[in-house]
Design goal:
By secondary structure, the protein is of the alpha/beta class. Helix content is 33%, strand content 26%. The protein folds into 4 domains: 119 residues, NAD(P)-binding Rossmann-like Domain (Rossmann fold); 95 residues, Regulator of K+ conductance, C-terminal domain (Alpha-Beta Plaits), CATH 3.30.70; 92 residues, NAD(P)-binding Rossmann-like Domain (Rossmann fold), CATH 3.40.50; 85 residues, 2-Layer Sandwich (Alpha-Beta Plaits).
């Protein structure tokens, strides 16, 4: 695909790296000549220095023949204008990063009237991810497939986990639950396990299951945590606002926000009357104790600096808070996770993933990719496919299929029923198939065959 990226900040740079690495023809537009020079030298892309909202600059970038323009500058209005111009000048699809809450409320209007294919609000995406974790705090991360009927959960194997030293195949026999271990992170390695794979201390396992089966599995392991009823949020920025709004409006959760800036604290208290807003510094342990940190079910660190978030998260963990979630903006989630933090949410990585899923689905529309998530710190992918009517291997048992190494059929959704396939099962028309793979560029069901 021919893709133009306007703005090479954190999200733009990450998108450039991923999309150029996947073989797309990428043109980067940025006002800063040093940024343009760096991105040209670092990746196999074309760079143009200039204003992405300029017709002339867009023409130089080949906008008339572009399949997609992604506007990821720091200014919402500029991103929207870039997309509108690109659409008028011939680009087929456009994506705008939009961060202002007022604009987020108008997404449907802007998409239908301005011709923008997709609007991404990184802070809202991060808040949505955190909200999903708080609703099921037993998992480090939780991703939905098949319209929420199947969950992909990341679980840490701690020192006393009874799965240590056990092969994967005993899970169903011992616990009588229908879950499948589809990937394992061991150190820096991503492993697609078979039934004889033995789980070790320190592993992070990725399992697919329906929500009821996942709950049963967590209960059996003694890892189940009840739904969050009290949460403390440190930092009342955009992510904190979106998260608090979701929690007070969709759950019975009691939300307490600690915000240092008096003006922002007042603004939040007026915008979120159902939440308790405290004006103070969340790095002061006396204040945190006074506000009942130890009585909270969950603590979410959403302050402006990653280092502050890491420190106060570790403090909350030392006080035995049940679930601790840490926002990362600059430092990678992998680095923060390596120092023992529970759940780390990267705004940049989430926004990048959301855009990449759209681009890949657009690029592979004929291959019927419906959902795609990067897991194991980007070393593996979980993909959701629709089985097309003309798929050559319909009715062929998995025992007969020659499937590539490091590819696993995690589960099948068939007429609202979740099926964990065995050797005698097969794919049928209309199935939704979840595939986990560490092979790059697995984009169609045919790609997984030898």
């Amino acid at each position: 695909m021919n893709i133009i990226i306007v703005g090479n900040g954190k999200v733009g740079h990450s998108l450039t790296k991923q999309l150029a690495g996947e073989g797309h023809d990428v043109v980067v537009i940025d006002k800063n000549p040093k940024v343009v020079e760096t991105v040209i030298n670092e990746f196999d892309v074309m760079g143009i220095c200039g204003n992405g909202a300029s017709c002339e600059i867009q023409r130089q970038a080949g906008v008339a023949k572009a399949d997609l323009l992604i506007a990821a500058t720091q200014t919402d209005e500029l991103n929207i204008l870039c997309c509108m111009l690109a659409k008028k000048m011939g680009t087929r699809h456009s994506i705008a990063r939009v961060r202002t809450p007022e604009y987020s409320k108008q997404m449907d209007f802007m998409q239908s009237n301005f011709g923008i294919s997709m609007l991404v609000n990184p802070e809202f995406v991060a808040a949505d991810e955190i909200s999903r974790i708080l609703r099921f705090p037993s998992a480090i991360k939780l991703e939905p497939f098949a319209n929420g009927r199947v969950e992909l959960a990341e679980i840490a194997i701690g020192d006393d986990n009874e799965l240590i030293g056990k092969p994967v195949h005993i899970i169903h026999e011992r616990y009588r639950v229908r879950v499948l271990v589809c990937a394992v992170k061991r150190g820096d390695e991503a492993i697609i396990p078979n039934g004889d794979f033995v789980i070790k201390k320190g592993d992070r396992i990725y399992v697919t299951a329906s929500r009821p089966e996942l709950v049963s599995f967590m209960r059996a392991l003694g890892l189940y945590r009840s739904r969050t009823r009290r949460v403390m949020i440190a930092g009342g920025g955009k992510v904190g606002y979106y998260l608090a709004k979701q929690m007070v409006e969709t759950t019975n959760c009691k939300v307490k926000i600690i915000e240092e800036d008096p003006a922002r604290a007042l603004e939040l208290s007026e915008a979120l009357p159902k939440a308790e807003v405290i004006c103070g510094d969340a790095t002061e342990h006396e204040l945190m104790a006074e506000q009942g940190l130890e009585q909270q079910d969950a603590f979410v660190a959403l302050m402006g600096h990653d280092e502050e978030n890491a420190i106060i998260s570790m403090y909350a963990m030392s006080k035995q808070v049940g679930k601790v979630i840490t926002k990362a903006s600059r430092i990678s989630s992998d680095v923060l996770g390596s120092i023992g933090l529970d759940s780390v949410v990267s705004v940049k990585e989430l926004a990048t993933d959301r855009i990449l899923r759209y681009v890949r689905a657009l690029h592979n529309s004929e291959g019927a990719v419906r959902t795609l998530y990067r897991i194991v710190d980007g070393k593996a992918e979980a993909l959701e496919f629709s089985v097309p009517n003309d798929f050559a291997h319909i009715g062929t048992t998995f025992r007969e299929l020659k499937i590539k190494k490091n590819v696993l059929i995690a589960c099948i959704l068939r007429k609202n029923k979740v099926v964990f396939p065995g050797g005698d099962d097969c794919m049928e028309r209309g199935d939704t198939v979840i595939v986990v793979s560490s092979i790059e560029r697995l984009r169609t069901l045919d790609d997984m065959m030898e």
